[in-house]
Design a protein that fits this description.
Domain Radical SAM core: 61-275
Structural class: alpha/beta
Pfam families: Radical_SAM (PF04055)
Largest sheet: 7 strands, parallel
Keywords: 4Fe-4S, Cytoplasm, Iron, Iron-sulfur, Metal-binding, S-adenosyl-L-methionine, Transferase
Shape: globular
Distance between the termini: 39 Å
Number of helices: 11
Number of strands: 9
Radius of gyration: 18 Å
Strand content: 5-15%
Order of helices and strands: HHHEEEHEHEHEHHEHEHEH
Pathway: Protein modification; protein lipoylation via endogenous pathway; protein N(6)-(lipoyl)lysine from octanoyl-[acyl-carrier-protein]: step 2/2
Subcellular location: Cytoplasm
Length: 297
């Protein structure tokens, strides 16, 4: 049996933060989606797409894209926006790269997105598992393209070098929010450190990507500054989506951003030097990820 770690599913935002109509999604349909759905059910596979209740699951699966989480489901961080359990992980599965690679081959995934929890307790931040997962996936599925959405390595640049050396086409690291909100949203993260991680990834010759959640209380000027900072540090691709509160224990939605403002931010990002911007209320990190491998670097 092939199994992958799961994370806790998202729940709806509280009634006082009622979602507007533009956040409604269509039920997934189509033969490509149905085929992946069948394989997932038959082999008891777990993906971030379904366990995270991603609104774009049907569209992404229909395009042959799926997202997997490695290195367990216990995170050493306690970000106020994220529903993943926080604590001290109890084990490290060194066989996980093989199982993930086999799952991707079994599902016939055309583009795989790999992500993980933070493993700050590990000396190499889990870099060896990252590297082997990419390498073994490429060995079993040489035509499958890969994006790795990697965590903050806490300035362990040797670990970063290992994480991004497996042959993946895109390396992503999410900023999540603007600089002024870091202490509230990412209390164990540092805005400048994440920018440096992106810069070092770009200097290594990689296609770089990041994501920001909107609706946490950021201003337009702060968004413009964030985009300028990302361009200055070598970012190629940016995703912008609406933050949705996972549970009542997490930070509340400050504002539901209108689709027109998302469109404005897309145009601003391109004008300021980003090469590709995905921007919309339902956009998530892996939305249209299969398109991002073709962005020139």
């Amino acid at each position: 049996m092939l199994t992958l770690p799961i994370i806790q599913p998202e729940t709806a935002a509280p009634a006082k933060a009622r979602k507007p109509d533009w956040l409604r999604v269509k039920l997934p349909v189509g033969p490509a989606y149905a085929n992946v759905r069948r394989l997932v059910d038959e082999h008891k596979l777990h993906t971030i797409c379904e366990s995270g209740n991603c609104p774009n699951m049907g569209e992404c699966w229909g395009a042959g894209t799926a997202t997997f989480m490695i290195l367990g489901n216990i995170c050493t961080r306690s970000c106020s926006f994220c529903a993943v359990a926080t604590g001290r992980p109890s084990e490290l599965d060194l066989d996980e790269p093989r199982r993930v690679a086999e799952a991707i081959q079994l599902m016939g995934v055309k583009h795989a997105v790999l992500t993980s929890v933070n493993r700050d307790e590990l000396k190499d931040r889990g870099a060896s598992v990252w590297y082997e997962t990419v390498v073994q996936t490429k060995q079993l599925s040489p035509t499958t393209t890969i994006e790795t959405l990697i965590p903050d390595v806490k300035a362990n640049w040797a670990a970063l070098d290992t994480m991004i050396a497996g042959g993946q086409e895109v390396v992503s690291h999410n900023m999540e929010t603007v600089g002024s909100l870091y202490r509230l949203v990412r209390p164990q993260g540092k805005y400048d450190r994440s920018l440096e991680q992106i810069q070092r990834t770009k200097q290594a010759g990689k296609r770089t990507k990041s994501g920001i959640m909107l609706g946490l209380g950021e201003t337009k000027d702060e968004m413009y500054q964030a985009m300028d900072d990302l361009v200055a540090h070598g970012l190629d691709i940016l995703t912008l989506g609406q933050y949705l509160q996972p549970t009542k224990r997490h930070i509340e939605v400050a504002e539901f951003i209108h689709p027109d403002l998302f469109a404005h931010y897309r145009e601003e990002g391109l004008r300021r030097g980003l090469k590709y911007v995905e921007s919309g209320p339902l956009v998530r990190s892996s939305y249209h990820a299969e398109r991002h491998v073709n962005v020139p670097i």
